[in-house]
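Hi there. Long-time user, first ticket. I'm pasting a complex I've been working with (about 298 residues overall). I'd like to know whether the download I got is complete or cut off, because the file seemed smaller than I expected. Thanks.
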Amino acid sequence: MLTLFQKKNDVKKNIHCTLLINSEKMKTQIHKASSKARQVTHEEVNEYQKNGVVKLSGAFEMDWINQLREVTETALNNPGPYAEEYAKGGGRFFGDLDVAKRFPQFNDFIYNSGAADMMGSILKSRKINFFYDQLLVKEPGTGAPTPWHQDMPYWAISGNQIASIWLPMDIVDKEVSLKYVAGSHLWEAYNPHNFIDDSAYEGTGLPELPDIDAAPDKYELLGWDMKPGDCLVFQGMIVHGAKGNTSNNRRRAWATRWTGDDVRYNKRKGKIAIPQEDPGLSHGDVLDSDAFPVIWSA
Ligand SMILES: O=C(O)CCC(=O)C(=O)O
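Hi, the file is complete. Here it is re-exported in full:
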């Protein structure tokens, strides 16, 4: 009996040890990064307000980028229910939604990187909700462009304090990085199209976006060379797009979308892409909810 009891205790101890080791491993995996985003300057906030986009150089430390790189490989191998392959003619342009809901390392960034605090400064908001996120990986040799578009018409929200952080995990040359039409965050809303087949969203009643490539000289186009740790912050209405990835580098990027005080749930007309699932809000509601949690407040 004694031996059996001892054995049982040993087994218990072993199980306890294994659990501890596993939870320690989880801790190191989940909490590897601990640095906080740097402060933004007044000039950067003013640039965002004027142009609808600002590049923040060295916004995040490499501990975050390394954590995101690692989990991106896991995410690529485990696509979620809304994952899409956008490239038809060679290469790979992979998109997936809500990876922060499925992988703790992405979720860790949302809560612990200081990104929400940074968005509070840029959006001049007293609180910041997390709206959703999108993983976007354009492998070298991918001809598929990112079509010109505005994000807001895809989303069931209204307001001005709405912006994305586009955070590349690789060196991205200006040529293949995102391009923006300066000041177009003040334009009217245009009809969204599906990225895969360019079909127009039905029932929105919105006009078609002007053909930017047909008359590029008419617009002031902004774009930057990016390196890991830099990010772009851009307003939900700004017109943006990108060429294919003709460089030799991977172009792994993670876009997180954030909202401020003036944002409301807006059941707009016609097809809507985001949110994919009913958040349990009524038209006109503030977003604060389990679906769109407040991450930071002043
Ligand atoms: O990474 C890309 O090419 C597309 C990004 C984009 O359009 C967005 O984040 O809104």
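A couple of notes from our side: The mean pLDDT is 91. The longest strand covers residues 127-138.
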